[in-house]
């Protein structure tokens, strides 16, 4: 087992595209780190750079104490699980599992022992003589994981290993992976699109955008204290409501709404005339009493809104209401043009989502009053999107 | 479960009966037409081969009045015919080996390595196919004379495979490209180098493509004529069937029966080859025509 250190990594592809733009990351020994970010942000590229399937343009890759920057994939002692599984189609499961060991001149008995052990652990016993073409998606996925495990590498690299599975299988395989990691404790770098996967599997989650790291933190901290507006909008589902608010008389104006600031927030906003305001859907409630702060220091803010869309999800309901304030777009616009939501909505207006309990069902088109705790208001710099929550703390410390 | 699934499958698959009758008729008409068209020369050969010289001298007609097998006897009795066949095999096999040995690595590199001018190179490879071998006959003849290749089968093999190679490289490149790159990457991580991957992944996974290409090279080699007739004119002992047929043409007369029998016999090995590996071939061409 080993740590992985990436220092000053850059990757420019031959066509001139810079997929990774200067990146430092320290992955601890035995840590399970998850890479997330929008499509095309460079997650797979980063994984392939660690694997040695691509060579870095600049910077160094260390596995443990060893500088592996110029080593081939096989010399790095890593194993990778591909999104497409990449099983060897002309070999049966047994051969697929043993292929890497045979190359390393492992004694025959050891190969048999290890392959048998892994096959048992992953429930592949009866499938050993089948070829990948004769396996179901979930079985293939288990073989792919098994193939990575038999080698006993110091680092596992997994590129969206569960994305080809149906929802139910994904949940059970996720639990399987978590158990495996608990048992083996091998350093793992895991790419996913799935928030739940990221939050449940990761010791830490690394959020990327356009080839740069936005924030690396434990899942809870990532959710509670996003470093910038992009992370705030990316982590959490439904996504955090973000819009550009004007600062007026020490409070915020968000379209027709007035959002009061606490003393601490006012200090952080300082002389800014604009900030990005963020509110999590789950922080809204239909009754003031439900959002009262524990210590009673703040009083709930009332927000009269018109429910444009209502989705009843059984245990909860989502309501969408318009807000007359400009939408916030994280990062360069080019990266987000694929987002059809962006294309459809007019930029001068935002739509906020509130996640509410179902003690009172809201009807479509109904005018309701929502409440939130002002202390739960997130504030970000309107220019670079950085969280304002961090600044005073840093200044004070 | 299987019993329950079967009727559904039967319904979902389009049986030939689903096709409108007119279309079926057109389709079958087309098939019959082209079958007759391509079988026509062979029917002529067979008809001619079975007619006695006297009958041949008379007015042309399809069905021989009497079946005359003396031509076949004459052909098979001539000991030199086995030499022709052996030479054809040697040239065809030699062509196949040379084409595969040179073509597989070339195609692998072209399929997997992005380098400047890769597409241009592939286009140039194909452009060489536009030139007829005839334009090279005289220079090659002189070259061979100097190097002592004239009159040898090696010379024919070398020249022939040079002209078989381009299309073979194209075929193989297509097959190799259809193999997912991740499989190679997984093998790289598993510790295999370029050659290991070529022999343990690429080649086993492209068997249909290899068979199709080898088959193509074999047939081109078997039918080799222009180079053989030019370079082997003075070495009858090295001539293949395609040239040996000409021995039937004497100074004053032509042994039509022998000529036709030899031509027919010459197609037998290729036919047999086709029959044995036709399924491989189908799979092979399905892969490249799927455009990957
Ligand atoms: N060989 C290449 N040449 C040029 N550009 C490339 C190459 N490979 C990837 N890219 C580009 O680099 C960027 C990052 O690609 P990468 O595959 O790492 O994204 P990703 O974060 O894994 O996305 P996804 O979530 O869709 O898998 C993309 O914009 C992609 O188009
Ligand atoms: Mg990817």
Q: What kind of assembly state do the chains in view correspond to?
A: heterodimer
Bound molecules: adenosine-5'-triphosphate, magnesium ion
Q: What is the correct CATH architecture of the largest domain in chain B?
A: Orthogonal Bundle
Q: Using the alpha-carbon principal axes, give the shape of chain A.
A: elongated
Q: How far is the N terminus from the C terminus of chain B?
A: 36 Å
Structural class of chain B: mainly alpha
Largest interface, counted with CB-CB under 8 A?
Answer: A-B, 22 and 16 residues
Poorly predicted runs of 5 or more residues of chain A = 332-340, 392-397
Distance between the termini of chain A: 36 Å
Task: State the fourth-level CATH superfamily of the largest domain in chain B.
Answer: MetI-like
**For the CA atoms, what is the radius of gyration of chain A?**
24 Å
State mean pLDDT of chain A (0 to 100 scale).
89
Q: In percent terms, what proportion of residues of chain B is strand?
A: under 5%
Mean pLDDT of chain B: 86
What is the fold named in CATH at topology level of the largest domain in chain A?
A: Rossmann fold
Number of helices of chain A: 11
Q: How many domains make up the 3D coordinates of chain A? A: 2
The rounded Rg of chain B comes to 24 Å
CATH class of the largest domain in chain A: Alpha Beta
- The CATH architecture of the largest domain in chain A: 3-Layer(aba) Sandwich
């Amino acid at each position: 087992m080993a740590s992985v250190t990436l220092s000053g990594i850059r990757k420019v592809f031959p066509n001139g595209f810079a997929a990774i733009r200067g990146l430092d990351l320290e992955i601890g020994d035995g840590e399970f780190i998850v890479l997330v970010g929008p499509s095309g942000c460079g997650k797979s590229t980063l994984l392939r750079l660690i694997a040695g399937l691509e060579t870095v343009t600049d910077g160094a890759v260390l596995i443990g104490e060893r500088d592996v920057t110029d080593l081939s994939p096989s010399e790095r002692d890593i194993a990778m699980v591909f999104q497409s599984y990449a099983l060897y189609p002309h070999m049966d499961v047994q051969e697929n599992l043993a292929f890497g060991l045979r190359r390393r001149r492992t004694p025959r008995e050891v190969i048999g022992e290890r392959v048998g052990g892994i096959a048992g652990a992953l429930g592949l016993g009866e499938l050993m003589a089948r070829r990948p073409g004769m396996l179901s998606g979930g079985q293939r996925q288990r073989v792919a994981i098994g193939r990575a495990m038999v080698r006993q590498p110091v680092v596992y690299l997994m590129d969206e290993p569960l994305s080809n599975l149906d929802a139910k299988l994904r949940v059970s395989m996720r639990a399987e992976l978590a158990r495996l990691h608990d048992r083996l404790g091998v350093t793992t770098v895991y790419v996913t699109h799935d928030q739940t996967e990221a939050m449940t599997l990761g010791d830490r989650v690394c959020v990327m955008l356009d080839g740069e790291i936005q924030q690396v933190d434990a899942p809870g901290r990532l959710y509670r204290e996003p470093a910038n507006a992009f992370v705030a909008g990316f982590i959490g589902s439904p996504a955090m409501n973000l819009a550009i608010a004007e600062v007026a008389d020490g409070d915020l104006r968000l379209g027709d709404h007035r959002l009061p600031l606490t003393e601490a927030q006012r200090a952080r906003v300082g002389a800014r005339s604009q900030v990005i305001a963020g509110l999590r859907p789950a922080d809204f409630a239909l009754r003031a009493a439900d959002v009262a702060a524990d210590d009673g220091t703040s009083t709930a803010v009332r927000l009269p809104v018109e429910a444009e869309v209502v989705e009843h999800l059984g245990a909860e309901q989502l309501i969408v209401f318009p807000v007359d304030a400009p939408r916030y777009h994280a990062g360069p616009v080019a990266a987000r043009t694929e987002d059809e939501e962006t294309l459809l909505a007019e930029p001068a207006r935002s739509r906020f989502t509130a996640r509410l309990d179902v003690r009172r069902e809201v009807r479509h088109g109904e005018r309701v009053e929502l409440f939130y705790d002002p202390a739960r208001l997130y504030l970000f710099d309107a220019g670079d999107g950085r969280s304002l929550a961090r600044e005073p703390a840093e200044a004070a410390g | 479960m299987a019993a329950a699934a079967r009727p559904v499958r039967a319904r979902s698959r389009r049986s030939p009966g689903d096709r409108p009758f007119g279309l079926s008729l057109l389709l079958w008409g087309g098939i019959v037409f082209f079958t007759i068209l391509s079988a026509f020369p062979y029917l002529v050969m067979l008809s001619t081969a079975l007619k006695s010289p006297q009958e041949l001298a008379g007015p042309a007609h399809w069905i021989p009045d009497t079946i005359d097998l003396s031509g076949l006897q004459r052909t098979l009795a001539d000991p030199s015919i086995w030499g022709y066949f052996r030479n054809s095999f040697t040239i065809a096999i030699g062509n196949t080996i040379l084409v595969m040995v040179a073509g597989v690595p070339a195609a692998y590199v072209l399929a997997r390595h992005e380098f400047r001018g890769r597409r241009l190179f592939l286009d140039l490879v194909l452009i060489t196919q536009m030139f007829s071998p005839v334009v090279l006959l005289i220079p090659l003849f002189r070259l061979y004379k100097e190097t002592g290749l004239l009159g040898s089968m090696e010379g024919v093999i070398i020249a022939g495979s040079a002209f078989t190679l381009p299309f073979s490289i194209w075929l193989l490149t297509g097959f190799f490209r259809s193999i997912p790159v991740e499989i190679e990457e997984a093998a790289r991580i598993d510790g295999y180098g370029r050659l290991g991957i070529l022999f343990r992944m690429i080649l086993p996974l492209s068997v249909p493509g290899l068979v199709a290409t080898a088959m193509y090279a074999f047939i081109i080699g078997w039918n080799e004529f222009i180079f053989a007739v030019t370079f082997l004119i003075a070495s009858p002992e090295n001539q293949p069937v395609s040239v040996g047929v000409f021995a039937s043409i004497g100074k004053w007369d032509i042994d039509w029966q022998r000529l036709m029998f030899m031509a027919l016999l010459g197609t037998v090995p290729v036919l047999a080859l086709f029959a044995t590996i036709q399924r491989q071939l189908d799979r092979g061409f399905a892969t490249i025509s799927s455009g990957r």
